Amino acid sequence: MSLWGGCMSKQTIAIGGGKGGVGKSLIAANLAIAMAQANRRVVLIDADLGGANLHTLFGIDRPKILLEHFIAKRVGNLAETLLPTPDPRLSIICGGMPVLGTANPVHSQKMKLIRHILALEADVIVLDIGAGIGFNVLDLFNAAEIKIAVFTPQLTSLHNGYGFLKAAIHRHLQRSLTPSVRDCFASTGPESGAESLSDVLNRLDHLDKDEAHKARSILLSEKLYLLGNMVRTSKEGQVIGAVGKMIKDHLQMDAPLLGNVRYGEKIQKSVNERRPFMLWAGIESNALTFRNMATTLLTTPTRSLIPKVPGEADQAATDAGPEQYNRKHPRFPVRRIRGMLKINNLSIPGHVRNVAYGGVLVAFDKAVPNPGDGKLTIGPTADGTVVDVLVRERHRDASGRQIGFSFREIGAVTRTAIASLVASAAASTAVRRTPTAGLSQTPYSAE
Ligand SMILES: Nc1ncnc2c1ncn2[C@@H]1O[C@H](COP(=O)(O)OP(=O)(O)O)[C@@H](O)[C@H]1O
Ligand SMILES: [Mg+2]
Fold first, then answer.
1. What's the 21 CA to ligand 1 centre distance in angstroms?
2. Domain chopping of the chain, boundaries
């Protein structure tokens, strides 16, 4: 059962970290089990092309069917490679001996693989990513909406893990922005080491302000967690937490610590006996850590966990302007919440149709006389949030009533306010699905 009952929801979670042997596969397996034990349908995929070993953790000697068989076109659909595990809620796709050419699939093969991964029927898809910073590794990591970087307290792991995240975000931005500015981002090679991401963004500001804005929106909406593994002391745990600050300062992303898994004899035993720890662990510290981490992941708001409100998104998609706007940002639909909206001291009744980390789509009751850029006041929402944002008018429909605004400046204060607005939009949309609760009349401040 998915979190919101019958509605479509899917979380994709990639587990990477750059360095081999830090416990990515072990963490992927046990997190996947913990989420299955929380009653989700989970698919765990060994996406370590060329170095697969997830099956051994589950005691599977020679998997009959492998991910590589799909890449080599021996089966037409990735779903045909699913294998059962001891927990009926968890299926696994194993990797193994590379079939000719599958350890390094060409771009089109990789994109097809990613499409099929995202189309698998499940509540949660967990990807165990290989080591290194090759493009295939980075692209599979970036394909997931929630990303987890596994670190051990050793200096080499901290160093490699940071380099991996830097390469991954450079690659992600490079592939998301228009080709004319792509050269600013180097995912590997000497340039990626020399310049900090904020320097690159400043440079991009001069080249193309819109693309710089888009890059910042992408960074703002990244859902990245750090995970400490084989931690032996609380001091070691703190070291991994400290990496988050470095990522914030240099890679401009929030990277909270998901949890610290301690070095454990029982975990070692589970590897030797080829029976994942979470299948038999009782109440003990590492098992609780895995359960807590699973809960955090399952309650992380993601695009697909926010249920679509029928009609809303579809209608927006038919309006030429807003459709273009909608494509730019992951949207969180807000059902018609009527009230006054203020734009540049003009108070006009209307409603917010959806919000994103990068902007907001507003439907005013009457045409707005050229609001242009300025300050938009939204709120208070159901939880009392009021957001003042500097906006830039981006798209308007023919009637002049429906306008998509981009947030113009994303400082620390605005970021927090937008995050709470998005959370409130998610909550209000979710609440609306239950027939007893209703927020449809929550007013905005009319001053
Ligand atoms: N928390 C832990 N406690 C004890 N041993 C661990 C722990 N995490 C990982 N290991 C050991 O490290 C080995 C490598 O883990 P693995 O998941 O295969 O790493 P990766 O996938 O990053 O290459 C495991 O086989 C196990 O022996
Ligand atoms: Mg591995």
1. 6
2. 11-305, 312-432
Index of the ligand 1 atom closest to the CA of residue 51: 23
pTM of the entire predicted model: 0.71
Among 31, 268, 284, the mutation site with the greatest number of ligand 1 atoms within 8 A of its Cβ is 268
Q: Domain 312-432: give its CATH architecture.
A: Beta Barrel (2.40)
* Cα–Cα distance, 384 to 56 (Å, whole number): 51
The structure tokens listed for 345 are: 């001291």
Token output for 269: 């035993």
Pairing of strands 124-129, 42-47: parallel
Q: Where is 223: in which H helix or E strand?
A: strand 223-231
Peptide bond just before 380 cis, omega within 30 deg: yes
Topology of domain 11-305 in CATH is Rossmann fold (3.40.50)
Q: Is the CB of 273 under 6 A from ligand 1?
A: no
Which secondary-structure segment (H or E) carries 280? Answer: helix 277-280
pLDDT in tens, 39-96: 999 999 999 998 899 999 999 999 999 999 999 999 999 999 999 999 999 999 999 8
Q: Are 322 and 328 in contact (CB under 8 A)?
A: no
Counting Cα atoms < 13 Å in the Cβ hemisphere of 437 gives 10
Q: Are strands 146-151 and 223-231 parallel, antiparallel or unpaired?
A: parallel
Q: Which of left, alpha, beta for 370 (phi over 0: left; psi -120 to 50: alpha)?
A: left
Give the bridge partners for 90, in sequence order.
42
pLDDT in tens, 292-308: 999 999 988 776 543 33
Cα-to-centroid distance, 148 and ligand 2 (Å): 14
* Distance from C-alpha of 357 to C-alpha of 285, rounded to nearest angstrom: 36
Residue 51 Cβ inside 6 Å of ligand 1? The answer reads no
Alpha carbon distance 389, 324 (integer Å): 21
Ligand 1: distance of its center to the CA of 23 in Å? 4
- Measure the CA–CA gap between 210 and 406, rounded to whole angstroms: 10
CA of 113 to the centre of ligand 1 (A): 27
